[in-house]
Amino acid sequence: MTSLSPRTTAPQEAATVSRTGLPANQLAASAARRFVRTLLTERAAAPGAAAISSDLIDQAVLLVSELVTNAVMYAGTEIDVTCRLTYGRGPAAAGGAGPATVAVVVEVADRHPSRTVRGGVDARGGVPGYGLQLVGALAESWGVTYRRSTKTVWFRLTATEGRSAAAPAGPDRRGAGATATTRARAPRRPGVAAEWVDRGGPSFLAETSELLAGQLDQDMVTALAAQLLVPRLADWCAIWLSTEGGGMQLSRVWHVDERRIGPLRVDLEREPPIDVVRVGGIPWTWPEGAGASREGGSALAFPLVARGEQLGVLLLGRAGRLQMTDTVARMVEDAARRIAQAVHTARQYTRQTTISLALQRRQLPATLASIPGVDTAIVYEPHGQGQTVGGDFYDVFPMGRSRWCFLLGDVQGKDPEAMSVTGLARHLVRLLAREGHGVESVLGRLNLAMAEEGAEAVELGGEQASSRFLSLLYGELTVDPGRPGARCTVASAGHPPPLHLFTDGTVEPAADPQMLLGIDEGAEFRASTFPLAPGETLLCVTDGVTERRCGNWQLDDNDGLAGVLRDGLGLGAKALAEHVRRAAHDFGTGPVEDDLSVLVLQAVTPKPGTAG
User: Is the bond into 608 cis (omega within 30 degrees of 0)?
Assistant: First the structure.
């Protein structure tokens, strides 16, 4: 929202208009431009405001766009934009007062409540205030003042009645400690771009590299690149990217006047640049009237090439004739190479992520089997960032009309090899169960397979190769259609024992602890069998829950998990699983450092008409 509040601190000052709470996204720059242009246009129409020329408005809009764009790209927090108008008189001429002057003062401030701006911070870390620091680093070439203490950048443009050009003004009248004003300078037109390149080109290229290096989505790369290039080097920018079919797809269109973006995109999509050679600065003919500009325009096409592969085309254009000196063209080519490399990196990441997610989806079941008379719920949180599968795994699957199998396991380690073992173990358990093996036999055969696989790994990889150990809780539920509840048989191999919650709040371990799978190929396992009556619950968790730490304490010390389960008496299966998950998170102050899995099996009274 735009708010207007009169200023009374000095008679020569007009109103102050603030645009507060701009979000940290690409729309912030557009909103700020509209805000400043609307304000100045309205003031220019007021009596006695002849000094507010269209040139002054254009310069103010350009500079606020640059400030907001840089702040938004790096700061990651909301920002404030404040615009003030100050009226006065120039030096008096003989026989009368001096000409009327007006100064436009625009400030952009980072709204983060506590963090200060720190030097040398990696932009990819998203530390608030970094964008404003970068703008401050460009102050020498841009003439923009940066005040570190308030995390604010500001500029002051001054014009005199009858003059269209902005000129330096005197000191800012805001009290003691205010910095001296400087003339804001920017490459508003390509005709002055060469001068800007000599002063600010290296900083611009460094900023481009740093900004794009942290992006792993090609559409975000093109979005940021377009805003970096416009309006610094052109009135508008378009970026095409190659597709797998060999064509070109228009990824991003950006215009200094956002009202022209839509019409410009429509015109550009008619004729994609399919014949651009691998050299830069090729004149490109585009449809007459493109960009909703009555005077037409011109453009130069630059290929986006990385690792010998053409990934797309960068198009820079403007209304009228676009000319670039050799210095400017070389800088654009350098920027195009950086954009192409960022697109290449983003595509590689996307390709690897797609493959990884496709493989991970095969490690876990798509759904849990429905068991008549037993509600099931699973909470699964892999520890690895960007992973859908970790070292933990689970499954619930049917073995006929009255028998179901369930498992919850944990593979040593959190690397891709550990994830591959999860899929192997889960599918092997299903195969053994369908061949008629009971709980004890399944664990014994899986233990033998794990021990043999570990021995082969050590033999092939030498001493540096490590065996893969597996903890597994495996059981069967048998449901009699004529009786409520179920009969449960379960065994724990190196896994936290399952807990049996009775209707009176009593909690007991449902299985004895036994050896991990994969250590001793001759190990034998024993299962426990008991009834699971309506209202009773079997809780199965991995050590990500029981070993959750708070200082020197673990969650399951002094039967802590049993207490958490007892506190959830009366909750349904899904609510109880969430209750245990939340208790694990709340137990420690830091992030969870392991995969976290909770499986709840709760016997309920079957609904009338439910088949067995």
Answer: no
